[in-house]
Amino acid sequence: MIGFFWNVVLALLWVALTGSFSGGNLVAGFVFSYFAVAVMQRHVPALRGYSQRVPRFIRFAVFFIKELFVANVRVAYDVITPVWYMKPGVIGYELEAKTDIEITLVANLISLTPGTLSLDVSDDRRVLYIHAMFMADEAELRESLHELERRILEVLR
Amino acid sequence: MIDLFIAVFLLSGAAFMFLAALGILRLPDLPTRMHSSTKAGALGAMLIMVGVVIGFAEWLAFARGAAIVLFIMLTTPIAAHAIGRAGYMVGVPLWDGTIKDELRDNYDLQSHSLQSERREQEPGKDREEP
Amino acid sequence: MNGFVFSLVYAMLALALFMATIRLCKGPSLPDRVVALELISSIVVGVIGVHAIDTGVLSLLDVAIVVALIAFLAAIGFARFIERGGPRSD
């Protein structure tokens, strides 16, 4: 987080020094300061690991947008066709995420993909209860949830 | 070319919203309706906003469009979670085709406490007890 | 071509609004109606966006931001209200 903060500060500094406040210049400043932070992180402990995190985040965003479209089309197909192919159900999913912010992000991103809706977290914060729309193969559903959670934690940790 | 992009984004966004409305009308119970409505509706709004930003091709429009998309992405799952949870907890009936419900047994309607024990997943523990 | 696209988009969104309104009137339980209201608000955000690009008025996007914000607050408020009521059958 502190790495991102410095990245933004350096980008604003670039814009101020070059003197033209346009969006394209801001993006250029952002790219340059990203490389500056990437070079500096070996010597400053607080910045460590920042440059690896950005590509991971981009990979996660691409993965998530793809997932969003696939799941949406799947739900849409079931809505259009007159026969119901869905097998809805509520499952308890064992969370790997521990802290509040991790659980919040995992639950929200699970809610955002169609076909799964997070209902509640148990009081001891170990199990997330999820309403899923397609439960024909429960093992496969758990596998895809686990994949999503692993990728989120990869970005956060 | 730009016109084509705008048309594609606007039409796909409108199509997703149409599907969301069709889903909310056709699907049988509350949670499945929410699957259709909140997410497809949000995706439709985001796609339309992308089309709008491309159409204006201005940094001011980009800032506003990005703000709307970010805001929808942040708030939709929270609202869906709140309504879905409230609906489930006050006992809105589920569809007959629902094949499994692991939450109902673990939830205490009076004290609002939710256990995490899972009988289905750990059959060994239950069987050991007489 | 663009005029045709805009009328098509408007027609689809209007039809979507109509169907969501049917669910709003019919909805067997209160949460169903709240979900329909939420969908209506996000369709309205879409309509405002399309209208902004149709007329070329940039400041309409501010209205879209406000509508999205109010819809979120309303949804959270309704959820609290429903949950306070406790178990019931309507």
UniProtKB/TrEMBL annotation, chain A:
Molecular-function annotations in GO: monoatomic cation transmembrane transporter activity
GO cellular component: plasma membrane
Taxonomic superkingdom: Bacteria
Keywords: Cell membrane, Membrane, Transmembrane, Transmembrane helix
Pfam family, one: MNHE
InterPro entries in the cross-refs: Cation_antiport_E
Topology relative to the membrane: Multi-pass membrane protein
Transmembrane segments: 12-37
Compartment annotation: Cell membrane
Family: Belongs to the CPA3 antiporters (TC 2.A.63) subunit E family.
PANTHER family for this protein: NA(+)/H(+) ANTIPORTER SUBUNIT E1, NA(+)_H(+) ANTIPORTER SUBUNIT E1
Name this polypeptide is given: Multisubunit sodium/proton antiporter MrpE subunit
Organism this protein belongs to: Halospina denitrificans
Automatic annotation (TrEMBL), chain B:
Basic and acidic residues: compositionally biased ranges: 115-130
Protein name per its UniProtKB record: Multisubunit sodium/proton antiporter MrpG subunit
Originating organism: Halospina denitrificans
PANTHER family the UniProt entry points to: ANTIPORTER SUBUNIT MNHG2-RELATED
Keywords (A to Z) from UniProt: Membrane, Transmembrane, Transmembrane helix
Transmembrane spans: 6-28, 40-60, 66-84
Region Disordered, annotated ranges: 110-130
Keyword Transmembrane: yes
GO molecular function: sodium:proton antiporter activity
Pfam families documented for this protein: PhaG_MnhG_YufB
TrEMBL record, chain C:
Entry membrane topology: Multi-pass membrane protein
Presence of keyword rRNA-binding: no
Gene Ontology molecular function terms on file: sodium:proton antiporter activity
Transmembrane segments: 6-22, 34-53, 59-82
Chief localisation class: membrane
The keyword Transport belongs to this UniProt entry's keyword annotation: yes
InterPro entries named among the record's database cross-references: MrpF/PhaF-like
Compartments where located: Cell membrane
PANTHER family: NA(+)/H(+) ANTIPORTER SUBUNIT F1, NA(+)_H(+) ANTIPORTER SUBUNIT F
Protein name, as recorded: Multicomponent Na+:H+ antiporter subunit F
Organism: Halospina denitrificans
The organism's taxonomic lineage, starting at the top: Bacteria, Pseudomonadati, Pseudomonadota, Gammaproteobacteria, Halospina
